[in-house]
């Protein structure tokens, strides 16, 4: 038989990010196993190559290089944090690899070699705010985030957006905390004060990872419940909830493109497979796992379509590939290497699951360049030939930066 | 650079016992002058209105009961302890209270500690090398070279302190008495104007004591020496003028005979039968 | 009381004690003498177990083989040690320093024996001061006091007079004498100062470069011996 | 003078010989052999080795202050990162208008966060000489100010260690902030070229590797020069008995400051060479745990030997590379176990195992001086 | 508050219905209809359905509404049968018939259609339930119902409230109702007399009402409202200060707890224990484990975790001591290295054995929520317990170190090991005991932290640096120093936070530590004297 198709898996299995990323590694292994059982692709088996970048950003670059140069993988699924993606990006581009990135992120990026299967801000943040504004009637906003790029960018976009919607500056409170912040007393108390001005208030949380547990705990203890001041989070999913006593959190919100509780056959099958694979009855699924599921299937389809694993051929073939997602719809790879996704708002339930309370009527196309940032509102990305440009300026009609290099 | 070298070389012509020309101004009398010095620790007065003058070239013995404040006095002179009140002058120009330990040391005050302290991870030879009088600023130290003359000087001192065989041994393995000697050697290398020697003969044999006594008496005259010791035999053999400290101030001062017949001194210090 | 037979000791490569023999008869004061660095302190450390001997035996009270015992058990047998260089616990108060010895007392008493304070009144005066703050001589007194707290049968003193004012040195000598007489204490003393040794010791032993070169009643410590072994 | 002395030493000669031979072998195997040859050294390996050498230089810098001066710096990562950021800023400016937004002056992250102009501290970094000077000056200056304050007040032992840790921790938090203008958590990345050489070519990579090798050699000789000079012995004296050294007339604080600053600058150089090779600099280099890890390399290799630091750094990082690939789920057990076993069974580190300890310059294990040497 | 009018009508209905409420039972077909309507209407329409259900007088209505509010009212997809889910964990759920209450056993989640609820509805439901509660015989439910009325009284309700006040027996309920009414009158009617009632009130709705009054064009009203507002502001400032202080102390006590074990292992024994954080982690995991062992009794489990957490961490400490530390006597620096290795191993161990994910530790009832001092100041209970716990642990440790022989012996051993042994102190035993003690205390910290923060493999790392800072800031080897340092740093941090934000506050605290150490190179309580200065 032919050589196997090598699939690189670049997720931290140790260090601070292991908490989120290790499940994604297992998801990939499961998907590969299933695909192999179904005969592989083009008659070739798939072979996973797992490495541990240990939550260390330079190590991500090193491992990516190792995967591409040494192990000669055909595709990489990996990364969680944006910084790790930024770190591997030059490597992937230089060695012309393929990377599927499964996590929501701040946008403002489009690489020929990267496929963004997680949400861009317009696929998560903006719809969530719309929901709060229109359905809940929120007038006062707390934008609380961990102090780094993703929250800063998202909040910048939201701030512009909210102001454009007529929200007064004094009705927006922005607050940043360090990574792993664990003492939320003062901030929660501030939020409480901010929210007691008589207008409906909501918190839009871009608080990252470990800081969430103490945050929600403090909310509960200071007696803020979802009916008073709802919190909508962009990075709290089923997996994070499995580490929190959700009793006091019922009703707080999260915006994602997938929830484990979604009532769809594809989802039930995926969950069953996952439970069987992990052997844990209480194993949970979450949004980035779905993103990998979609990304993997898209890759499979693209390879079939191209008839080869050649990177350039796959890159061309994958645009337009449509595969079912787990919420009963279809995800399509767009020319800007982002995919179409439905946006779901869920409320936390006492069993650690979300109950969907709202959802976009149709899927939303991921936007690489936000329309609400002055620097990028004129940019679009289209990797189809002949344009082949990640940051085409529609006003000046030129392709910025990278393409200029390629053209030289 | 060459200027530095020249500077460094110039003093090599001197024999190591001859002190370097020091900036101390002794034309107006004593080399060391303590006036009304007091210091207390958590309310305990260790030094109490102490007045003391040491003349240039003098060899002074200081005795006194345990805890009288002898070591503390040395701490004050060398800048280790800051007194609460009083003034301390080195010659008539230098107010020691405004100076840091290294400054005081480079003015020409050397000290041997009561508990021998040497650099245990360095060899005996290196201990002496570091103590050697030289430009002790950072860059000169970095560029310093050990020329033949320096070596000779070190050898000479090694001879004097009887540690020639152990020159390459780490100072950490020396026996107690050997460390005492090494410290004396370091003091010699420093060529200070004023030597403060705290219990030099503790742990030495009778004969070594004699040698030490001899050494100290040769030093006196050219250098000023202050010795603290409890061994009366030793003190007697070197003493010209003896000061007795008690509870932080001077109890008696005079020749050995005067002092040892002083009733208070007998009572608090010597005991009846000495 | 203590019988040392043919012990050899090495610091790494260097052979420090050679085939050393020494007898410390019960109820007497035996004084070990020798120049700097001949191995006196090393010998004491071997007895206390702080250094291990390569060969030979050390027998305590006719029956106990010390070389097999752990350090902490030796003091339980009733050996008190005043090391050279004081080795007090600098950050413990004077009283706490003394109390460290209480654990091994046979009578299980929790009080520091009166005698210690009687002997060294300064310790009582300064009981709440940190050991390390004391003057050198006071520390030495503390070290001796601490060894007395355990009420030893054998007291090892390594240059106890060092740094102590003359009248107290004399007093220490008297105490040694009393203890020997009244309590049947045995003393092993390292001392350089001849007058003191002559006055309070019953026997002497001279070491030279790790070997015992002379031994006998203190009266037998002749000037000739001194000249030969104690001067350079 | 003091710099040439180490060259005459056997141990330095051996070290340099081994280092240069390794550089040569790698170069030859990389250039001369075809890619499919089993002995061919790939560009990937070359970069990896280059990274190890950066770490080695960093470890040497730490060993200088820790091994010989007794200052256990738990914040050397800060100097490394500062050097790295200086280089990163230069590389960012070199991107010019090739960035995604095509802004000729502002780096991408500033454009999308809506910065209008370059902050003042970014000025000048478009000039190589300035940036390279900053590689030395930024860490050097920080070390100077910090060291001046700390040594002047005679902060020693753990107190010093912990405030170095506080320093790097504070810097980490500061650099995380987007407002600081250093790219926040995402750091600086997407570098294109260095001094006109395209960073994404194998030739540049080899060049950087060789440059790092040479830097390590120079750094080693400088450190060796210091420790074999009289100043080195004074350092050891400060390490073991600081107060006593003062009474000999040495200004301990100045000695400490001098060596500390040199060490910080070496760390900065290591950081600067590291950044173009790994392609990113981000605040995690400031993380206290990274700084502790550096100390662990040194201790593992053998403290107060310099070459031990090199061995430790290379070995630990090589082990990391291999183990994270071979046993991704369990490599921390292996690494943790390695740390434990080496400490327990090889008190002098690996260097102590391989080389007969000459005259032990290692610190004395005297209970009285423990506190001082911590 | 669009729903309040509905509410007040409901109140009328309820008050009429109350006595005979329980008797009525509607026909099942009607119930079926109501529930179907609930299931099939949009969120916007559900409100009306809910009210219909509440007003139906069916004795099962309350149960339906409660299950509906907690997402447990559902329908079997295939049969359309209405059910109440009694256990919704995992893939198969236990259910009972919503109409008959009959147990139906387990159903796969796939076959169950939950009737969706959202926040707005849930709020509504709570209000409905609480308005019913205004008539409840239970005084405390009346009180909380009355409190929720503040700010949501409307004209219809305003007519009824005076009557309620009159018949109300309990004074606090009366006061709450009066205030609720006053808020309405000030805000909506500009009633000057009611302003008086609100003066000094700390309720935020009262403040909003006064603010509104201040904007009115009746100068008299404005003056009165301004005056009332001023008095409120003064009170508020005081309360704010008290609150900040409390926050500071509670953060400080967390720091103290985290650091105090280290004050023993590091401060007293001199072991630079990088695995300290992981020992804390073990304590936290013990709490989790205990709660797994005793499902349904989180409180008991938590209390049992105190000894258990201590033991587990202490045992781990003994193992570390015996396998690693004992070989590093006299090499304090190497302990840093080895324990760093140990910490890596422990972390990974937890990842492999338990899970890389955070674990849920439940806060028992009696520890959640807060005690209300007044409406502007409430003290969160879990923090209150932690403060108390920290003090108790500190006192206990102090006792052991000061009053037992162990305290003396361990200090003697660390200061001069051989000499201590020569004095007959069993150094090995002392080492083991002390290290176990320090580790055990770390375990206790873990038990407490499990109530505040994540229980996960990274728990330790997030506290280790802070712990070292605290110990060093306080002065190594001084327990009082650790206490004071922890509390000081905590308070400073909380004082700074409102000014400069959390990130800068943290940076500033670090800078402060650096500067402070310049001033006092040996911490808050330095070891003084000759010995320390060397
Ligand atoms: N830092 C300190 N804290 C408290 N007491 C101190 C301190 N330093 C010295 N003392 C006390 O001051 C007194 C003087 O001590 P000092 O060491 O000067 O005595 P000394 O004359 O040298 O005695 P000795 O002959 O025993 O060496 C002693 O009682 C000592 O306990
Ligand atoms: N730890 C050690 N390592 C190597 N050699 C040592 C060590 N300790 C002592 N020595 C050497 O062993 C010899 C004996 O030392 P010891 O301390 O027993 O001498 P001593 O007779 O007590 O001398 P003193 O009269 O000076 O106290 C000395 O030459 C010393 O250098
Ligand atoms: C929200 C985060 C968990 C992911 C995001 N892409 C980042 O910047 O790290
Ligand atoms: Mg003294
Ligand atoms: Mg001796």
Task: Indicate the topology.
The complex is a heteropentamer of chains A (408), B (274), C (232), D (374) and E (534).
Chain B lengths: L1 H9 L21 E10 L2 E11 L4 E5 L6 H8 L7 E6 L3 E2 L5 H7 L1 E4 L11 H8 L6 H6 L4 H14 L14 H15 L3 E5 L7 H14 L4 E5 L3 H7 L2 E6 L2 E6 L1 H6 L1 H8 L4
Parallel strand pairs in B: 3-8, 3-9, 6-7, 7-8
Antiparallel strand pairs in B: 1-2, 1-4, 4-5, 9-10
Helix pairs in contact in B: 4-7, 6-7
Chain C lengths: L1 E10 L2 E11 L4 E5 L6 H9 L6 E6 L3 E2 L5 H6 L2 E4 L11 H6 L14 H6 L1 H5 L10 H14 L4 E5 L7 H18 L2 E5 L3 H7 L2 E6 L2 E7 L5 H8 L2
Chain D lengths: L9 H23 L10 H26 L7 H20 L12 H5 L15 H25 L4 H20 L11 E2 L3 E2 L2 E2 L3 H27 L1 H11 L1 H6 L4 H27 L1 E2 L6 H14 L5 H20 L4 H15 L3 H6 L15 H4 L1
Antiparallel strand pairs in D: 1-4, 2-3
Helix pairs in contact in D: 1-7, 2-7, 2-10, 2-11, 2-12, 3-5, 3-10, 5-10, 7-8, 7-10, 8-10, 11-12, 12-13
The complex binds adenosine-5'-triphosphate (ATP) (2 copies), leucine (LEU) and magnesium ion (2 copies).
What's the short version?
The complex is a heteropentamer of chains A (408), B (274), C (232), D (374) and E (534). Chain B has 11 helices and 10 strands. Chain B is α/β, with parallel strands linked by helices.
Structure report:
The complex is a heteropentamer of chains A (408), B (274), C (232), D (374) and E (534). By secondary structure, chain A is of the alpha/beta class. Helix content of chain A is 36%, strand content 20%. Chain A has a 7-stranded mixed beta sheet with strand order 7-6-8-9-10-14-15, with helices on both faces. Chain A starts with a strand and ends with a helix. By secondary structure, chain C is α/β, with parallel strands linked by helices. Chain C has a domain of 160 residues: P-loop containing nucleotide triphosphate hydrolases (Rossmann fold, 3-Layer(aba) Sandwich), CATH 3.40.50.300. Chain C has a 6-stranded mixed beta sheet with strand order 6-7-8-3-9-10, sandwiched between helices. Chain C has a 4-stranded antiparallel beta sheet with strand order 2-1-4-5, with helices on one face. In chain C, strand 4 and strand 5 form a beta hairpin. The relative contact order of chain D is 0.18. With 374 residues, chain D is mainly α. Chain D has a two-stranded antiparallel sheet. In chain D, strands 2-3 form a two-stranded antiparallel sheet. Chain D has a single domain, classed as Orthogonal Bundle (ABC transporter involved in vitamin B12 uptake, BtuC). Chain D is built from 15 helices and 4 strands. Chain D is globular. Chain E has 3 domains: 113 residues, no CATH class; 108 residues; 220 residues, no CATH class. Chain E is built from 22 helices and 7 strands. In chain E, helix 5 crosses helix 6 and helix 20 crosses helix 21. About 2% of the residues of chain E have low confidence. Chains in contact: A-D, A-E, B-C, B-D, C-E, D-E. One adenosine-5'-triphosphate sits at the interface of chains B and C. Leucine binds next to helix 5 of chain A.
């Amino acid at each position: 038989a032919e050589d196997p198709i090598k699939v690189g898996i670049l997720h931290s299995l140790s260090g601070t990010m292991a908490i989120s990323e290790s499940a994604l590694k297992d998801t990939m292994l499961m998907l590969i196993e299933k695909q192999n059982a179904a005969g592989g692709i083009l008659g070739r088996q798939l072979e996973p190559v797992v490495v541990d970048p240990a939550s260390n950003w330079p190590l991500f670059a090193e491992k990516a290089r190792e995967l591409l140069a040494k192990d000669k993988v055909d595709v990489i699924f990996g990364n969680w944090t944006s910084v790790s993606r930024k770190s591997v990006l030059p490597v992937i581009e230089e060695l012309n690899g393929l990377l599927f990135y499964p996590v929501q992120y701040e946008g403002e990026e489009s690489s020929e070699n990267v496929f963004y299967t997680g949400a861009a801000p317009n696929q998560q943040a903006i719809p969530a705010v719309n929901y709060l504004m229109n359905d809940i009637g929120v007038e006062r906003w707390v934008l609380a985030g961990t102090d780094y790029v993703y929250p800063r960018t998202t909040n910048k976009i939201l701030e512009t957006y909210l102001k454009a919607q007529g929200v007064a500056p004094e009705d927006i409170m922005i607050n940043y905390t360090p990574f792993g912040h664990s003492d939320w007393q003062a901030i929660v108390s501030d939020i409480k004060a901010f929210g007691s001005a008589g207008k409906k208030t909501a918190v839009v949380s871009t608080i990252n990872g470990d800081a969430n547990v103490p945050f929600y705990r403090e909310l509960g203890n200071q007696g803020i419940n979802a009916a008073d001041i709802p919190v909508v989070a962009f990075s709290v999913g089923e997996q994070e909830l499995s580490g929190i006593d959700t009793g006091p959190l019922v009703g707080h919100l999260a915006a994602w493109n997938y929830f484990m509780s979604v009532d769809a056959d594809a989802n039930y099958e995926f969950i069953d497979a996952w439970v069987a694979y992990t052997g844990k009855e209480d194993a949970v699924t979450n949004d980035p796992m779905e993103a990998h599921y979609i990304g993997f299937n898209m890759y499979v389809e693209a390879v079939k379509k191209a008839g080869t694993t050649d990177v350039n051929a796959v890159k061309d073939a994958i645009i337009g590939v449509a595969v079912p997602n787990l919420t009963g719809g279809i995800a399509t790879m767009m020319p800007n290497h982002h995919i179409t996704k439905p946006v779901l708002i869920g409320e936390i339930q006492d069993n650690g699951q979300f109950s969907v309370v709202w959802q976009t009527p149709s899927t939303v196309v991921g936007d690489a360049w936000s329309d609400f940032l002055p620097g990028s509102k004129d940019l679009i990305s289209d990797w189809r030939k002949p344009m082949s440009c990640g940051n085409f300026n529609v006003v000046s009609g030129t392709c910025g930066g990278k393409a200029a290099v390629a053209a030289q | 650079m060459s200027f530095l070298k020249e500077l460094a070389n110039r003093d090599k012509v001197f024999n190591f016992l001859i002190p370097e020309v020091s900036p101390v101004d002794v034309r107006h009398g004593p080399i060391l002058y303590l006036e009304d010095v007091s210091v207390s620790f958590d309310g305990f007065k260790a030094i109490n209105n102490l007045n003391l003058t040491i003349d240039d070239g003098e060899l002074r013995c200081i005795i006194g009961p345990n805890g009288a404040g002898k070591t503390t006095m040395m701490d004050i002179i060398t800048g280790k302890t800051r007194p609460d009140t009083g003034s301390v002058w080195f010659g008539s120009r230098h107010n020691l209270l405004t100076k840091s330990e290294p400054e005081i040391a480079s003015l020409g005050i050397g000290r041997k500690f009561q508990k021998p302290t040497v650099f245990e991870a360095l060899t005996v030879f290196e201990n002496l090398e570091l103590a050697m009088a030289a430009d002790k600023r950072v860059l000169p130290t970095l560029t310093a070279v050990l020329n033949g003359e320096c070596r000779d000087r070190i050898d000479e001192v090694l001879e004097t302190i009887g540690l020639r065989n152990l020159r390459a041994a780490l100072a950490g393995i020396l026996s107690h008495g050997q460390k005492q000697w090494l410290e004396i050697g370091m003091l010699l290398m420093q060529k200070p104007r004023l030597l403060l020697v705290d219990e030099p003969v503790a742990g030495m044999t009778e004969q070594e004591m004699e040698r030490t006594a001899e050494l100290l008496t040769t030093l006196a005259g050219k250098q000023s020496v202050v010795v603290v010791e409890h061994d009366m035999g030793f003190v007697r053999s070197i003493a010209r003028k003896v000061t007795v400290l008690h509870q932080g101030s001077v109890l008696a001062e005079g020749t050995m005979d005067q002092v040892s017949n002083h009733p208070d001194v007998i009572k608090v210090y010597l005991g009846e039968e000495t | 009381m203590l019988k040392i037979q043919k012990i050899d000791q090495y610091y790494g490569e260097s052979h420090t004690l050679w085939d050393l023999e020494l007898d410390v008869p019960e109820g007497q004061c035996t004084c070990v003498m020798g120049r700097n660095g001949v191995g006196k302190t090393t010998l004491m450390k071997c007895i206390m177990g702080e250094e291990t001997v390569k060969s030979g035996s050390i027998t305590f009270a006719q029956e106990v083989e010390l070389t097999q015992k752990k350090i902490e058990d030796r003091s339980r047998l009733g050996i008190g040690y005043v090391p050279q260089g004081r080795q007090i616990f600098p950050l413990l108060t004077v009283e706490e320093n003394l109390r460290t010895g209480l654990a091994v007392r046979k009578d299980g008493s929790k009080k520091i024996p009166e005698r210690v304070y009687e002997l060294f009144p300064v310790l009582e005066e300064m009981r709440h001061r940190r050991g390390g703050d004391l003057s050198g001589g006071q520390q030495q007194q503390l070290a001796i006091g601490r060894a007395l707290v355990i009420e030893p049968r054998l007291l090892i003193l390594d240059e106890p007079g060092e740094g102590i004012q003359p009248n107290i040195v004399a007093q220490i000598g008297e105490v040694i004498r009393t203890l020997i007489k009244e309590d049947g204490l045995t003393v092993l003393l390292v001392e350089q100062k001849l007058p003191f040794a002559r006055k309070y010791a019953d026997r002497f032993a001279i070491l030279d470069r790790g070997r015992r070169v002379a031994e006998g009643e203190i009266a037998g410590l002749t000037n000739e011996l001194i000249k030969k072994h104690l001067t350079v | 003078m003091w710099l040439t002395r180490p060259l005459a030493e056997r141990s330095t000669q051996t070290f340099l010989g081994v280092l240069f031979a390794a550089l040569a072998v790698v170069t030859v195997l990389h250039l001369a052999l075809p890619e499919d040859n089993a002995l061919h050294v790939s560009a990937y390996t070359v970069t990896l080795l280059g990274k190890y050498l950066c770490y080695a230089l960093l470890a040497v810098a730490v060993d200088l202050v820790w091994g010989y001066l007794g200052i256990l710096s738990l914040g050397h990562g800060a100097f490394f990162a500062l050097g790295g950021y200086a280089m990163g800023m230069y590389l960012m400016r070199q991107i010019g208008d090739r960035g995604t937004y095509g802004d000729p002056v502002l780096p991408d992250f500033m454009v999308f966060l809506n910065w209008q102009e370059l902050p003042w501290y970014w000025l000048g970094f478009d000039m190589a000489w300035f940036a390279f000077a900053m590689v030395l000056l930024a860490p050097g200056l920080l070390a100077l100010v910090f060291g001046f304050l700390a040594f002047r007040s005679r902060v020693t032992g753990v107190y010093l260690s912990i405030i170095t840790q506080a320093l790097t921790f504070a810097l980490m938090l500061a650099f995380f902030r987007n407002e600081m203008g250093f790219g926040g958590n995402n750091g600086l990345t997407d570098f294109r070229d260095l001094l006109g050489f395209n960073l994404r070519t194998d030739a540049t990579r080899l060049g950087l590797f060789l440059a790092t090798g040479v830097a390590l050699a120079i750094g080693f000789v400088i450190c060796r020069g210091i420790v074999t000079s009289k100043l080195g012995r004074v350092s050891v004296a400060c390490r073991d008995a600081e107060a006593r050294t003062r009474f000999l007339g040495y200004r301990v604080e100045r000695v400490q400051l001098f060596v500390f600053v040199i060490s910080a600058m070496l760390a900065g150089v290591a950081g600067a060479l590291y950044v173009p090779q790994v392609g990113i600099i981000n605040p995690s280099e400031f993380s206290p745990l990274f700084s502790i890890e550096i100390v662990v390399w040194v201790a593992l290799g053998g403290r107060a030997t310099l070459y031990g630091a090199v061995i430790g750094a290379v070995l630990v990082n090589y082990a990391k590379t291999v183990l994270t690939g071979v046993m991704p789920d369990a490599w921390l057990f292996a690494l943790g176990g390695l740390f434990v076993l080496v400490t327990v069974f090889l008190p002098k580190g690996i260097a102590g195992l391989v080389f007969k300890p000459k005259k032990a310059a290692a610190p004395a294990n005297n209970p009285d001086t423990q506190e001082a040497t911590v | 508050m669009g729903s309040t009018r509905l509410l007040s009508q409901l109140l009328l209905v309820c008050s009429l219905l109350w006595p005979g409420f329980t008797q009525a039972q509607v026909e099942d077909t009607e119930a079926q209809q109501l529930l179907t309507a609930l299931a099939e209407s949009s969120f916007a329409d559900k409100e009306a359905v809910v009210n219909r259900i509440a007003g139906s007088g069916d004795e099962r209505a309350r149960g339906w509404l409660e299950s509906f509010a907690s997402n447990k009212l559902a329908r079997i997809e295939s049969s359309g049968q209405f059910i109440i889910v009694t256990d919704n964990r995992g893939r198969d759920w236990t259910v009972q018939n919503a109409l008959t209450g009959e147990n139906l056993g387990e159903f796969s989640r796939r076959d169950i259609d939950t009737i969706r609820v959202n926040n707005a509805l849930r709020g509504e439901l709570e209000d409905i339930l609480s308005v019913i509660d205004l008539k409840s015989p239970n005084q405390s439910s009346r009180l909380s119902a009355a409190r929720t009325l503040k700010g949501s009284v409307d004209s219809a309700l305003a007519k009824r409230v005076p009557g309620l006040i009159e018949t109300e027996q309990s004074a606090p309920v009366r006061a709450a109702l009066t205030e609720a009414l006053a808020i309405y009158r000030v805000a909506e009617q500009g009633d000057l007399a009611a302003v008086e009632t609100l003066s000094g009130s700390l309720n935020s709705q009262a403040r909003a009402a006064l603010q509104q009054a201040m904007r009115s064009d009746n100068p008299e009203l404005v003056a009165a409202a301004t005056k009332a507002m001023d008095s409120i502001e003064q009170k508020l400032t005081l309360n704010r200060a008290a609150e900040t202080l409390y926050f500071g102390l509670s953060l400080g006590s967390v720091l103290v707890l985290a650091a105090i074990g280290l004050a023993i292992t590091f401060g007293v024994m001199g072991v630079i224990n990088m695995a300290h954080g992981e020992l804390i982690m073990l304590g936290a995991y013990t709490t989790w484990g205990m709660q797994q062992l005793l499902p349904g009794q989180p409180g008991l489990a938590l209390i049992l975790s105190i000894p258990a957490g201590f033991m587990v961490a202490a045992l781990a400490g003994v193992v570390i001591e015996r396998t690693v530390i004992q070989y590093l006597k006299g090499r304090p620096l190497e302990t840093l290295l080895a324990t760093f290795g140990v910490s890596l191993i422990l972390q990974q161990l937890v990842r492999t054995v338990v899970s890389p994910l955070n674990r849920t530790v439940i806060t028992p009832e009696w520890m959640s929520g807060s005690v209300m001092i007044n409406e502007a100041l409430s003290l969160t209970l879990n923090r209150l317990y932690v403060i108390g716990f920290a003090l108790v642990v500190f006192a206990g440790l102090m006792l052991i170190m000061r009053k037992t022989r162990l305290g003396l012996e361990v200090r003697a051993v660390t200061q001069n090991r051989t000499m201590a042994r020569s004095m007959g102190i069993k150094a090995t035993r002392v080492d083991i005991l002390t290290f176990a003690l320090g580790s055990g205390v770390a375990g206790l910290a873990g038990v407490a932290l499990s109530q505040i923060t994540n229980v996960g493999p990274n728990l330790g790392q997030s506290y280790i640096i802070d712990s070292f800072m605290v110990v060093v800031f306080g002065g190594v080897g001084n327990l009082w120093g650790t206490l004071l340092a922890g509390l000081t740093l905590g308070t400073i941090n909380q004082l700074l936070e409102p000014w400069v934000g959390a990130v800068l506050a943290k940076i500033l605290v670090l800078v402060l530590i650096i500067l402070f150490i310049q001033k006092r190179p040996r911490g808050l309580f330095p070891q003084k004297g000759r010995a320390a200065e060397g």
